[in-house]
From TrEMBL:
This is Chloramphenicol phosphotransferase. It comes from the Bacteria. Gene3D superfamilies: P-loop containing nucleotide triphosphate hydrolases. InterPro entries: CPT, P-loop_NTPase. It holds the Pfam family CPT.
């Protein structure tokens, strides 16, 4: 939703790829992520269930520290941080099937795709991981639901926020985050 409501002049908004291709948008990207996460936090505090499907990275023209900032906003709320993995070969098959575009002219994987795959799983701290090349959407959703229902505390966002504060680390990550489904 946030990407869809972003005015054209600010696109791709929070979908900005790694690589520093639009440094003019980067300060706005930080603000957009903060606004989204503050909204998520408010919904959670009001007892409204929220599911978020968004990806993070910190490969901009300079570090923006977005994931630690977002983790700090939600660290005291019931958040399940899920790492969604998929091997590069499967990503390429899906790109070809969906958009009829895939490999570069020389047969290599396009650099933006490689950079995305490498950057969205840093630091790799999750409450749960799923692999969409091995599991269907339904199985992934059921895994998330079971994890939410098992009563174990979710700690990923707390750990990310604490590590960032202690070590002043800079990193990015990917998430599908369900708050109290």
């Amino acid at each position: 939703m946030f990407k869809k409501i972003t005015p054209d002049r600010y696109q791709p908004g929070i979908g900005l790829r790694p690589g520093g291709e639009r440094p003019d948008l980067e300060p706005l990207i930080v603000t957009l992520y903060r606004a989204m996460y503050e909204s998520i936090a408010l919904h959670s505090r009001l007892g409204i269930n929220v599911v978020v499907d968004v990806w993070h990275h910190d490969v901009y023209s300079e570090s923006r520290n977005i994931l630690p900032t977002c983790a700090d906003i939600l660290k005291d709320l019931p958040v399940l941080f899920v790492g969604v993995r998929c091997p590069l070969e499967t990503v390429m098959e899906r790109r070809i099937a969906t958009w009829n575009m895939g490999y570069a002219e020389d047969g290599s994987v396009p650099q933006p795709v490689v950079l995305w795959q490498e950057s969205v799983h840093v630091p790799g701290i999750y409450d749960l991981e799923v692999d969409t090349s091995e599991l269907s959407s339904e199985v992934c959703a059921n895994s998330i639901r079971k994890r939410l229902e098992d009563g174990r505390a979710s700690t990923a966002f707390r750990r990310i926020a604490d590590i960032a504060m202690q070590d002043d680390l800079v990193f990015g990550a990917s998430l599908v985050s369900g708050i109290d489904l």
